[in-house]
Design brief:
Length: 229
């Protein structure tokens, strides 16, 4: 599909997922999260990654690293070519990186080159403790936001403002992002789109499809088929 991201397992290491975009038009992704570390390399054009700690505009030759569970959105210029790696936080190349960062002029485009480039970068950034505490409150508890806010001694509106300032999205949006990340993991394992939509409490397959494409740039069916045996 024109303007879509494509995903597949890396032939060298199936535990690492590859993403690729080569589109004539600009493609934006809504704010979302990943359970894995995302490594992005721009080989042509540019792409902007927006996080709570800053905006990272990567041009050809640059790499952006976004740790697991860090909310981010992205957009780029027409004609840009971008490659992504998704790997576990325990992988040696990214272990110890806990905040988003940008590596300039790496010129890495292939997976091996990307891993080598980030393997030597300094581990000096940390995710703010308050941000981590807030996301844990919302992700580990199914209580209504107003109840969580009250337990923290805050009004509902005050808690929502604090959460958005620290995390970059509202508590409701963050919970939706977690549901989409869960849906992505289930599709990767081979669950049907219908089953994922039902189990994830999406209203129907179309609802899941719209939200999934906004966040990841591909349809649930296309993503699932890329990992089919």
């Amino acid at each position: 599909m024109p303007g879509s991201w494509t995903y597949r397992p890396w032939a060298r290491d199936a535990a690492i997922e590859l993403g690729h975009l080569a589109a004539a038009q600009s493609v934006a992704l809504a704010c979302h999260v990943h359970p894995d570390v995302q490594v992005a390399a721009v080989s042509e054009g540019w792409r902007m990654y927006v996080t709570t700690v800053g905006e990272f505009r990567a041009i050809a030759g640059d790499i952006v690293v976004i740790p697991a569970d860090v909310p981010h959105a992205s957009h780029g210029g027409a004609g840009s070519i971008v490659s992504h790696l998704y790997l576990s936080s325990d992988h040696a190349a990214v272990r110890g990186i806990s905040g988003p960062l940008c590596i300039r002029n790496s010129r890495a485009t292939l997976p091996d080159e990307m891993l080598d480039a980030i393997g030597s970068c300094p581990r000096r950034l940390t995710r703010p403790a308050r941000c981590a505490a807030l996301t844990e409150l919302v992700s580990c508890d199914d209580l209504a936001i107003r109840t969580i806010a009250a337990r923290q001694g805050r009004s509902t509106d005050g808690f929502i403002r604090l959460f958005k300032r620290e995390v970059g999205m509202t508590p409701a949006a963050y919970r939706l992002a977690l549901r989409l990340a869960w849906a992505r993991s289930r599709l990767k394992r081979g669950d049907t789109v219908a089953d994922v939509a039902y189990a994830g409490s999406f209203s129907d397959q179309s609802h899941l499809g719209r939200l999934f494409r906004r966040a990841y740039g591909a349809t649930p069916a296309a993503y699932r088929s890329a990992f089919a045996d």
